[in-house]
Amino acid sequence: MPAGYAALKGSFRSLYGSYLLRSGDFSAFQKQHALIVAFHRVNDDLEDTLTCSRTKFLRFCRFFKRHFDVVSLSDLVENVTSGNSVAGKLVITFDDGYRDNFQYAAPILKSQNLPATFFITSGFIGNNNTAWWDQGAKPAPSWMEWEEVLLLRKAGFSIGSHTMHHANLGTTTALEAWREIVDSKKTLEHQLNMPVDLFAYPYGGKTNFNEEARELVKRAGYSCCLSCHGGIVAPNSDPFSLNRVAISEWQNRPEQLIMDVVREAATLSSKQQSR
C-alpha cells in the first residue's frame, strides 16, 4: 500500500472514529460491551508491528481513561463469569515480557492511575535470548528480570501466563501443551509467591489454539483464556474465549479503534436479531 494512501486512509479512520465517539452507535456499544486491548513493546528505539512509542502509548492511555471505564482483567472476568454488566469497560494487557514494559509502560500507566495485566512468557525472563520474530531488530529487545516482574506485581499490576516458551498451542501435542501451560503457571507462582490464574495464548490467532488446549487451560486452574485476533467482549462471553484487539503501528491514533469497535458491535447485534 503506498505511503500516501495509507496516511489518507488513517486520517479518514481517525475522523470517522471521532465522529462515532459522539454518535448513538458508540453509546450503544458502551451500554453492552467491553474491550480488551493488547500491546507488546513501548519504546522509542524500534518501529515495527509490535512497538508503540512512549508518546503514542500515553495518548492511548489518556483516551482510554476519557472514554472507558478501565478495569483490571480479573474484575472483567468476574463480571463475565457472574453475569454482571461489562458495559463500557476496557482492559489493558501486554504480552511476552519485554523489559520496556517495566521501564516505560508501567510508569506511564501509573501516571494515569490505570490497571494493566502483563502476560509473561516465563522461559524468556532473565535470559539474553532473542525471539525468532525479533531477529535482526536493532537494538535487540531485551526481556525483564524476575525482580522487575515482581516489582510490577508489587506496584499493583496483574501478572498472567503466556506459556513457558511462547508455544503455538494450535500445533503442539497435548502433552507439550500441558507442560507449556502448567510449567509457566508453576514458575510464575514460585517467583511471585502468589496464585496466577490469568492466561493468554501466544500468537493469538484462531489457528494458534484449539478446544483441546482450552480444556487444558481450564484443568490447569486458570480463570480465563484470551486470544488476540480482534473482537469485543459481550455480556455473555465465555471467559475461556475472550477477544482482544492488538494495538499496532496501523492504529496511529486511538480514534481509529472506534470504527472497529462499533462495526463489531453492530455485527453481533445483527446476528442476535437474526436468531
H/E element order: HHEEEHEHEHEHEHHEH
Our estimate of the beta-strand percent is 5-15%
Helix share bin: 40-55%
Count of distinct strands: 8
**Backbone shape:** globular
Number of helical segments with 4 or more residues: 9
Compute the average pLDDT: 92
Low-confidence stretches: none
CA radius of gyration? 18 Å
Given the helix and strand composition, which structural class is it?
alpha/beta
Layout of secondary structure:
Layout: H1 3-21, H2 24-30, E1 35-39, E2 41-42, E3 51-52, H3 54-67, E4 69-70, H4 73-82, E5 89-96, H5 99-111, E6 117-120, H6 146-154, E7 158-161, H7 174-192, H8 211-219, E8 245-246, H9 255-274
Parallel strand pairs: 1-5, 1-8, 2-3, 4-5, 5-6, 6-7
Helix pairs in contact: 1-9, 2-9, 3-5, 7-8
Please characterize this protein's 3D structure.
It is built from 9 helices and 8 strands. It is of the alpha/beta class and 275 residues long. Strands 1, 4, 5, 6, 7 and 8 form a 6-stranded parallel beta sheet that branches. The radius of gyration is 18 Å and the shape is globular. The model has no long low-confidence stretch (mean pLDDT 92).
